[in-house]
């Protein structure tokens, strides 16, 4: 709330005082803050989901590689058994 007091003096020496009282409440600051908060939360959620998706992809890739190594080891084991039988 801003109050203004204006004092003027006319040519005859009379003083006139005018007081302006501002009673209008300022609104809108909460809306801007709310929008910034919503945008920040949306960005944080996006980053979190991207991190989780990358983690799942990495886990899947490691699992697939381990499965391939296991299959290769099984093939080597079978080949070794076949070599022993042929002797």
Question: Would you write up a description of this structure?
Answer:
It contains one helix and two strands, in the order ββα. The protein has 87 residues and is of the alpha+beta class. It has one domain. It has a two-stranded antiparallel sheet. The chain is rod-shaped, with a radius of gyration of 40 Å. The mean pLDDT is 80.
Strand order of the largest sheet: 1-2
Number of distinct helices = 1
Cα-based radius of gyration, to the nearest Å: 40 Å
Q: What is the number of independent domains?
A: 1
Sheet with the most strands, sense and barrel status: 2 strands, antiparallel
Mean pLDDT across residues: 80
Shape: rod-shaped
Parts with pLDDT < 50 across at least 5 consecutive residues: none
Order of helices and strands: EEH
Terminal residue distance? 102 Å
Give the structure's gist in a few sentences.
By secondary structure, the protein is of the alpha+beta class.
Write the layout of secondary structure elements.
Layout: E1 3-9, E2 15-21, H1 29-86
Antiparallel strand pairs: 1-2
Structural key phrases:
single chain, alpha+beta, 1 helix
